[in-house]
Fold this protein.
Amino acid sequence: MHFQKRSRIQWALLVLTGIAFGLRLYQIETQSLWRDEVDAILFATGPWPALTAMFSRAGENGPLYFLLLRPWIALFGDGACAVRYFSVLPGVLTVPLCYQLGRRLLSDTAGILAALLVATSPYLIWYSQETKMYALLACLSALSTWLLLRALQEDRTAAWIAYVVVTSLGFYTHILAVVLLPFHVALFALGGTAFYRRWPKALAALACLTVPYLPLARWEIPTLLSSFETGHPFTPLGTILATLFQVLSFGFRSPPLIEVVAVVFTLLAGTFLYRHATTPRSFSATYPQAVWWLYILVPILVVYLISLGMPIFTDRYLITIAAGFYLLLATGLDALRRRSGLIFTLCLLAILVSDARSIWFQSHTTIKADFRSAAAYYGAHASADDLLVVQMPYVQRNFEYYYRQPYHRADGLFTNAGLLPGEVADKMTALTAGYDTIWLLESEAEMWDESGLVRAWLDEHGRTSDQVAFQRIELTRYELPGSGR
Amino acid sequence: MTESILAYLRRNMKTATPLVPLITLAMIISSILLQSDGLVSASQLFQSPVSPVQEQSQKPTPEKVLPPSEPIPAKPTPVPLPTQPPATQPPVPPEPVELPTQPPQPEPTQPAAQPTETPPAPPPIVDVPSPVQPAPPNPGGAEIVIDSGLLIDSLLVYVAYAWLCCGVLIFIMIPIVFLLLYVWGAQRARNNGG
């Protein structure tokens, strides 16, 4: 009987992992590569010294992902599907890991529910389809926490060593992976007498974690003390919580009230209704929801406290808490299942339908800056003698990723530091000298030319002969009279 | 059949009744959430916001303007222009094209000229308060202004320093202590035996 149950669960997990894999591959190329993704390719394929310098350069998110991406690109090329596939793998691996986490503190059923929620999470699917480190970060976060639980419960030296190694890899994947450590300390404390005898090894692990962190701390601490501009606005704690709830529950879609109620109700059920039946040995075993809440809240609080001095909040930086969120949701579903089959079914259906709608939205709506279409349009309509002015110039990397032909390019003027209209006119005259046709490609132009002085000059001195808008991109063709070579 | 369904529903309703307060609480929280800024703005989170906010590692710096870089002489090839461009097109086939091996490093900005006249773009219409003259130093004693954010931040940093130091010390001390204990234990065993 027990064997049959285990076999059923293993099959269920296998099916869920397959579903996760399919959903992460579904429409993987719908979105054009955006700025950071092209940067990731350039970092990974850049010279070794530049790559290794990221270990010690202030302001870097973490070099490990780019290091791993390098051989991947060497093997499979730098096509959008190939580079994004690299994130699919850790994204899929997170599913069985969350099952293991749920199984360890809750039950097999709760573990399967957690695996289902992770497999269909629109947010995790989004980052499993992006050439950035966030899918890997979520995976390492779940793996690190699972290894810690295993080490604490079973006291195996191999688990302790694996915990130290995986957590250290997390540090080098993203600098904010370190926010997991206070949660892990709290988890140890929650264990109470059950984990009491493990303190020498736990302390040794913490000490060991310090050593690989030292190279990062060498530049992080001075940066933290300095007035380093992160470029992020300050976000109040309430907005942080609401934003994370939104993205983890519904991805990037604005949900209707009924879906929000279903998720909030399930979270509340997980918080208030679940109580483990037997083992009173430790608080964390009796009230696993306390562990999930700490998993969610401690990293958020750490990021918020740092943000008081240096704003750093962006939702994806806290993807480390994703496993905790879905485990809390699974706890709620499990608690409801025990009380009322009908309510459980309704909540599960509501969540799955909501996930399906979000996944559909993300995979059928152009959301990221559409450089692929812009480059194709330019290729079809521009002649080789035309000049392309890129505003802001940084996005020319994206354009050149999709447009791999010779062309004439000029960087848009940086006017945000107070460039005067007269100076703009002089520079634009010099910039466009010898060209009859100028194309202006604008994407995130506000960062460079907030007042639109470049566009204003072209509007004044040229005749608009074509204008087309793509997602987050505007492409305009101007005919300049009397500028011919 | 109908009876069994009704019985199932009745049984479930009975067990679901205690959940009503929780459902009510969930509805209240959901209403608050839907009215908060977080849920409204989350639909704009697809990539870096349009305002000057972006990844730390990829923050572009003002760039010196140069004449059109690398104008590659190419034979103009007349391209037949379709009357209606497709909205989306398949990606350009990956030809072996030279990608920049190193991300181009923006050059330092030119020293920004002090504005002497208002640019033609929307002029600032907000009343700018006249700059407040810094108060003369109080001879009796400096005024202490406590920035709570900075204070918490500094405290965190100090705690982090302490944690680092303790961590390193523990890392070194643990094997030493274990070694000492082992030597001491062995010595004691030898003494007892002898």
